[in-house]
Amino acid sequence: MTASSVEPTRRDFLYIATGTVGAVGAAAALVPLIAQMNPDASTIAAGAPVEVDLTPIAEGQVIKVFWRGAPIFISHRTKKEIEAARSVNLSSLPDPQADEKRVKAGKDQWQVLIGICTHLGCIPLAHSGEYNGYFCPCHGSVYDTSGRIRQGPAPKNLPLPPYKFLSDSKIRIGEEDTAKV
């Protein structure tokens, strides 16, 4: 008598089990091989653009995000803050720069700054200081709501990162806006 080919045998089970283990082993070997082709986290942090949704930021609020390891302050300025920043006599500023040059045209309510004091690299506090802008507690530099130095040892205004509006409620930090350069 011969064995029927319809019933599974022990040998059939061994073939299936061996094939399954081989497939799982091959997949386990491929995962790290493919993953090592992705850029290193430090490379991504070194210059990858960051997209920020502005919708949840209330008027008068300042949030902090990070780009290239640096804090970025995004301020949703009130009309009062904008008017105060624009009424300043530029000749009275240590680093004269008009508020209009520190925001994107038509988006005056959004102020985007690199939050590093230009004196010794400390991180200023938002909504602080005499001008209700930014105050560096390390050595007393005071910036207005436009990020311009008003008092203290800092020699320059808070720098502006390269950014552009993707829509009315979304920005990308880390790319120059070539359309307006």
Structural account:
The protein has 181 residues and is α+β, with helices and mostly antiparallel strands. The chain has one domain (43-180): Rieske [2Fe-2S] iron-sulphur domain (Rieske Iron-sulfur Protein, 3-layer Sandwich), CATH 2.102.10.10. Helix content is 22%, strand content 24%. The protein is built from 3 helices and 10 strands; from the N terminus they run ααβββαβββββββ. The strands form 3 sheets. A 4-stranded antiparallel sheet has the order 5-6-7-8, with no helix packed on it. A 3-stranded antiparallel sheet has the order 1-10-9, with no helix packed on it. Strands 2-3-4 form a 3-stranded antiparallel sheet, with no helix packed on it. A hairpin with a 2-residue loop joins β2 (62-67) and β3. It is elongated. The model is unreliable at 177-181 (pLDDT under 50).
Give the gist of this structure.
The chain is an alpha+beta fold and 181 residues long. It contains 3 helices and 10 strands.
Walk me through the topology.
Blueprint: H1 10-35, H2 41-45, E1 50-53, E2 62-67, E3 70-76, H3 79-86, E4 110-114, E5 125-128, E6 133-135, E7 142-143, E8 149-151, E9 163-167, E10 170-173
Antiparallel strand pairs: 1-10, 2-3, 3-4, 5-6, 6-7, 7-8, 9-10
